[in-house]
Write a structure and sequence with these properties.
357 residues, alpha/beta, Quinone Oxidoreductase, Chain A, domain 1, Rossmann fold, 7-stranded mixed beta sheet, 6-stranded parallel beta sheet, 24% strand, binds NADP nicotinamide-adenine-dinucleotide phosphate
């Protein structure tokens, strides 16, 4: 089968199209014909060995000291089940599925354990839209719902609201009943359409000097900004950062013991339950992905370069041909044909649903 080989760390040019054996599945696994894969900031970090903060060492230990441990790249996908192991229940050949953090998603086929992060695709989404969901949506759910326990009526500030995680964080916070402010230098209309009632352009205004206070600040930018953002938090406020540094872990420990505004850092791990939550939110109309740029598998280097260089106004996905996939049973209205590069896909509008832990 065709796959994108990633045998060394580096710039997008290290990704090359190759042929590898099609995976054979174990009794607890599912074989998925991959029809779309998301190209995320996380994938860029894995490709470039650009692991932030103290994870620089752990990242190399986990993902390969001198070269990538997973020789085929890609982590977030959507596709169709073509084979099911004897011990697998809940999935059948022909099911449309999506998943996250399954190494090897830039390939025509992917073997995934049925207990890993895989779930049935939300009704009414294309494979490209579904592939673009897990990365940001699972992260936003883990941080806002599970770690910060955002309550209805709270004020949530999303810093980096126009980015891959931020777009999902705005929608999840809105779904949880929060009043959402987005901080972004661009795509203000998009961020508003996702649920932000107020926008702060960080190139024009410093929100830490505005005198306003938020219950939760979700920071989806590079770096740990707890010290500078602290003044903008209420006394029971939570600062959430995706960026793991030794300092923020220290701040986390100190603020847990001391009281007052807390710092919270972590890594969002996907699983089937969280993907099912994402599926339900999409089907309720509370969550949607925004696909900005589409490439073929062969154009993976261009896709990574687009993510890095052109600040796409939404997710970048690669789409594969579905020739040979078994006929889909069940839902109507699913659009499978790869679309032209650059075509944005409309989706359901945001609304407040009822999903909570
Ligand atoms: N810990 C975890 O589990 C986890 C999970 C997923 C991602 N991550 C990490 O989270 C980070 C964000 O990922 P992403 O995919 O959302 O990246 P992204 O799409 O590049 O978005 C980053 C955002 O940061 C904003 N930004 C840049 N400088 C800013 C500033 N000075 N003030 C305010 N906003 C600023 C940008 O806004 P404008 O474009 O509007 O300027 C952009 O929208 C990455 O470091 C990624 O590795 C961590």
């Amino acid at each position: 089968m065709k796959a994108i080989i990633n045998s060394q760390y580096g710039s997008p040019e290290v990704l090359s199209l190759g042929e590898v054996p099609r995976p054979t599945i174990k009794p607890n696994q599912i074989l998925v014909q991959v029809l779309a894969a998301d190209v995320t900031e996380g994938d860029r970090r894995l490709r470039a060995a650009d692991f932030p903060g103290f994870t620089a060492v752990f990242g190399r230990l986990m993902f390969g000291m001198f070269r990538p441990r997973h020789s085929v790249g890609g982590t977030n996908f959507a596709g169709r089940v073509v084979e099911v192991g004897a011990e697998v229940t809940g999935f059948a050949v022909g099911d449309d599925v999506f998943g996250g953090v399954a190494h090897g998603a830039y390939a025509e086929y992917l073997a995934v354990s049925a207990k890993e992060a895989i779930a049935k695709m939300p009704a009414g989404t294309t494979h490209a839209e579904a592939a673009a969901l897990p990365y940001g949506a699972v992260t936003a759910l883990v941080f806002l719902r599970d770690m910060a326990k955002v309550q209805a009526g709270e004020r949530v500030l999303v810093v980096g609201a126009s980015g891959g995680v931020g777009r999902m964080a705005v929608q999840v916070a809105k779904h949880l009943g929060a009043q959402v402010t987005g901080v972004a230098s661009r795509d203000h209309d998009l961020v508003r359409s996702l649920g932000a009632s107020e926008i702060i352009d960080y190139t024009q205004e410093d929100f830490t000097k505005s005198g306003k206070r938020w219950d939760v600040i979700f920071d989806a930018t590079e770096g740990d900004h707890f010290r500078s953002f602290r003044a903008a938090l209420t006394s029971t406020g939570r600062y959430l950062t995706l960026y793991m540094t030794v300092r923020v872990l220290f701040e986390m420990a100190m603020t847990t013991m001391r009281g007052g505004p807390r710092a919270i850092a972590g890594v969002a791990m996907g699983n089937a339950d969280k993907l099912n939550d994402v599926r339900m939110l999409v089907e309720q109309g509370a969550l949607r992905s925004v696909v900005a740029e589409r490439f073929s598998l062969e154009q993976i280097g261009r896709a990574h370069a687009a993510l890095e260089q052109s600040r796409p106004r939404g997710s970048v996905v690669v789409e594969m041909s579905e020739a040979g996939a078994p006929a889909h049973h069940g839902r109507a209205g699913i659009e499978h044909a790869p679309q032209a590069r650059g075509a944005a896909v409309p989706n359901c509008s945001a609304s407040v649903g009822a999903l909570r832990p």
